[in-house]
Task: structure prediction
Amino acid sequence: MRSALLMLHRPLLVALVATATLAVSVPAFAKEVTVTISNFAFSPEKTTISAGDTVKFVNADDTVHSVVAQDGAFHSDGLDTDDSFSYSFTTAGTFDYHCGLHPFMTGEIIVN
Ligand SMILES: [Cu+2]
Result:
């Protein structure tokens, strides 16, 4: 009786373990990091990520901002309140960026 119950549940258990392993390993490879634009500043100003990660810039201000890479690698449209712009960094290095409308707003993404 007891062994019959175990045999019945074994495939389900294997499927559950496989699903749990997948759920844990996929986000570990590429994560999404949020940079908030607030009070005319990028927060955090310096963000360290791993190659393959995505940075999501979210505008929390009531003013339109944009995100422009110093080296021209990316250039967002004007972001209204609550709008966002995402960019995946595939190579290691230090990437400086600023707001296209307010050049004094600067930030840095460090990709390891
Ligand atoms: Cu701005």
User: Anything to note?
Assistant: Helices lie at 2-29. Residues 31-111 form a domain with the Immunoglobulin-like fold (CATH 2.60.40.420). Residues 65, 99, 101-102, 105 surround copper (II) ion (CB under 6 Å). DSSP finds one helix and eight strands in the chain.
